[in-house]
Design goal:
The protein is about 5% helix and about 35% strand. By secondary structure, the chain is mainly beta. About 40% of the residues are buried.
């Protein structure tokens, strides 16, 4: 569990904008969001960054590459201005540093020095004078065997080779190896503190010698704004200064992370335009499929927009249940890196007592919480297990599940998330399971696993509300993005059930076990309608309804007969761009039929060729295999001709019915009887064949009068302590407050 706490606190590259780069005049349009902004670290001569010592250990004595964008604001400094340095604290001179990439005090020249000890340099590369008050990219490469002295070095400015050395100038074994951390913008040499004066950005460390072609190709590529799976190999330290708390400089490379600490003053981040090619935000990507709505959650504490689900639903959710939702994470702001909450049921009284931190806060008193860590897209599900022994051994978590790798959430992409809780009708759960995009998320060996911790006790908070987009453990944590298609099930669904249904639209009135279903297509007002007969309608606080993309639509078909499908798309914002047109591509082929064009001649689409952008017409025809019945589907996406951005896949489900020959056609009457005369369900207490149930309700299901002891008309109810027919005394704290947190 200690490893879990460390992993939960670690930082990874913030997944930001994705999609094709595009040049677009955005000043004249009403934008759905601010364009992503690149930031730089500003040093006024006192502050600097000390990197985790693990980075220098990782680089060791092997070859390496260092890159940075630099902007110097004081060319007349009386001391050298280090960009990146590695040396013993208080090194006697430059002859005794491991390496320093700097600007010389006397001539403003960019130089790279490696000490050789005893008044000797190992390398002394002198480049060109830096153009002050202007951004310049600098890079240095050092070749070295696994052990021994370096063999060559290269210095580049704006991708051009400006200095080189092909031999180590000092004696054998004279490299000034140091166990001290690497610093950005600072070195102490000869008893004098030397500081960078200006801005630094995109500082990168590579555990390999990069070629000049690689440096020129990638120096404007903002890896921070890419999919984490695209982080290049050998990139072992990457400091973009675009995300993270003020007291930490995040390493945006792959694990392990070597975060930095600002010293000598606060970390000041300023906008830095023109350094990297930030792609157009995916929020400009089109929506494919029929018009749909969703709720947008800003994530801002001052706006506090969330959905409070009704008390009736909280009481009806049994101990064993399943939750599902589609979520779309916006890239969070630099200063707000709290966990993003999808759904939670928590103890607000405990949250008010225990101030929250990034560690725990009142998490042990929560019932269930599903969140996303915005630093790495990790999906986190936990259930509080109380304090005492549970907190000592398990940090207060009865169960805690974590996603990793391909199961993490990518910003600006729709992702389906779900969890199931397995439990008896009383007592603590047995286990829980986490799902992402229909697949069960395996738990790594070092994690605690899916089983409930026996020393913990569940906080079964039936009388506390369930929230969408909000959780409070002493720190309020809101969702940042959109949420859609929310489902609660009255049973723990198995992996096959979730995989089968997570994309498919459901008929809420006829789906067994579906407790509540929020389509979030209301589009206006504060009411959020439940599509099931239970009518667990919810209330949205400060709702922001937005156009959205429904994951799927459902059409009816007959086995072996054509179903004509019109492909649709629209801009994500009504006024941007107002004259856009779209190209369509097939992303998934049907599994039990064929997909045909409506061109002349008609063509069978045999390959979903998204990479080659094989365009199809805006009208296709689906034909199922003869004899097939059930659900089949295909997927398509829309590509904006204005921005080049591609929509998420929209799935078209076809409910294929059997073909009935004319003489065998069946017409259902009002009573649901094939070829009936509509009289078989007349009569009864409602004129439709209804009967009075045990509760005295006409056409009822016999559940409305069942007491907490499962006996009809017993009149017994749960008290505030969740005890059937209790007297509200079993959960009093020392102050006499039910479910209070006060203790002796």
């Amino acid at each position: 569990w200690a490893a879990v706490a460390v992993a939960a606190a670690a930082a990874l590259a913030l997944v930001s904008a994705r999609g094709a780069r595009a040049s677009l005049d955005v000043d004249a349009v009403d934008l759905p969001m601010d364009t992503p902004v690149n930031h730089a670290f500003k040093n006024t001569g006192t502050s600097y960054v000390q990197l985790d010592a693990g980075l220098s250990e990782r680089l060791g004595t092997r070859g390496f590459t260092i890159e940075a964008w630099v902007y110097n604001e004081q060319p007349t400094s009386a001391a050298n201005q280090p960009i990146v340095a590695h040396a013993e604290q208080g090194a006697a001179s430059l002859f005794h540093v491991d390496f320093v990439l700097q600007v010389n005090r006397d001539n403003g020249v960019v130089s790279f020095v490696m000490g050789g000890g005893a008044d000797r340099y190992g390398f002394n590369l002198q480049g060109r004078a830096l153009v002050f008050n202007e951004w310049t990219h600098v890079a240095v490469t050092v070749a070295a065997p696994h052990a021994g002295d370096p063999t060559s070095a290269r210095l580049y400015m704006n991708g051009e080779l400006v200095a080189s050395a092909d031999a180590w100038l000092s004696g054998v074994g004279t490299r000034q190896i140091s166990a001290e951390p690497i610093t950005i913008g600072y070195a102490e040499v000869g008893g004098a503190a030397q500081h960078w004066r200006g801005q630094l950005d995109e500082v990168r460390f590579w555990a390999t010698v990069r070629s000049q072609a690689m440096i020129a190709r990638d120096h404007r590529d903002p890896f921070l704004f890419s999919d984490p799976t695209d982080i290049p190999e050998h990139l072992v330290g990457y400091y973009s200064f675009d995300a993270g708390p003020d007291d930490t400089v995040w390493d945006n490379s792959d694990q392990p992370w070597y975060d930095g600490t600002p010293l000598g003053g606060p970390q000041e981040r300023v906008p830095a335009d023109g350094l990297v090619d930030i792609p157009l935000s995916p929020l400009y990507a089109p929506f494919a499929g029929p018009e749909a709505f969703g709720l947008h959650f800003t994530g801002f504490h001052d706006e506090q927009n969330f959905v409070r689900l009704p008390d009736s639903l909280s009481r009806d959710v049994p101990r064993a249940f399943t939750f599902e939702a589609w979520v779309y994470l916006d890239a969070p702001t630099v200063n707000d890196q709290h966990y993003k909450t999808i759904v939670a049921r928590h103890n607000q009284r405990a949250a008010d007592i225990h101030p929250g931190t990034f560690d725990s806060g009142s998490n042990p008193e929560a019932d269930f919480v599903l969140q996303v860590d915005p630093r790495n897209g990790r999906v986190v599900f936990f259930m509080g297990g109380g304090r005492g022994e549970c907190e000592r051994t398990s940090l207060g978590y009865g169960v805690a599940l974590f996603s990793a790798g391909e199961h993490n959430v990518n910003a600006y992409e729709w992702t389906h998330v779900a969890f199931s809780v397995y439990s008896s009708t009383a007592g603590d759960p047995f286990s829980a399971a986490l799902y992402v995009n229909g697949a069960r998320v395996p738990q790594a060996a070092e994690l605690p696993g899916e089983a409930w911790r026996p020393e913990c006790r569940r906080n079964y908070l039936r009388f506390d509300p369930i929230y969408l987009g909000f959780y409070d453990n002493g720190i309020e944590q809101y969702w940042d993005g959109r949420i859609d298609e929310v489902r609660f099930w009255s049973e723990p669904r198995e992996a096959a059930d979730i995989a089968r249904d997570y994309i498919r639209p459901l008929a809420a009135a006829h789906t067994h076990g579906l407790l509540a279903y929020y389509l979030l297509n209301d589009g206006a007002g504060t009411a959020v309608r439940d599509a099931t007969p239970a009518a667990h309608d919810a209330k949205a606080m400060r709702p922001r309804w937005v156009l959205s993309q429904a994951p799927a639509e459902l059409l009816d078909g007959v086995s072996g007969f054509p179903v004509h499908v019109a492909l649709q798309a629209r801009s994500p914002y009504p006024t941007y761009p107002n004259d856009d047109t779209f190209t369509y591509v097939v992303t998934h082929l049907p599994g039990h039929g064929g997909l045909f064009t409506t061109d002349t001649p008609i063509e069978l689409i045999e390959q979903a060729d998204v990479d080659a952008m094989r365009a199809v017409a805006a009208r296709l025809t689906y034909v199922s295999d003869i004899g097939f019945t059930g659900f089949d589907y295909f997927g398509y996406a829309a590509v904006s001709n204005a921005t080049g951005l591609q929509s998420e896949t929209h799935y078209v489900y076809v409910h294929v019915q059997p073909y009935d020959a004319p003489e065998q056609q069946c017409v259902l009457d009002a009573c649901g009887v094939c070829n009936g005369d509509g009289t078989s369900c007349t009569g009864g207490c409602d004129g439709k064949g209804g009967e009075i149930d045990v509760c005295g309700v006409c056409g009822g299901d016999g559940l409305g009068c069942i007491g907490c002891d499962s006996v009809p008309n017993s009149g017994l109810t749960y008290d505030v302590c969740d005890v059937c027919d209790g007297d509200a005394s079993t959960c009093l704290d020392c102050e006499g407050t039910p479910n209070g947190g006060a203790t002796y």
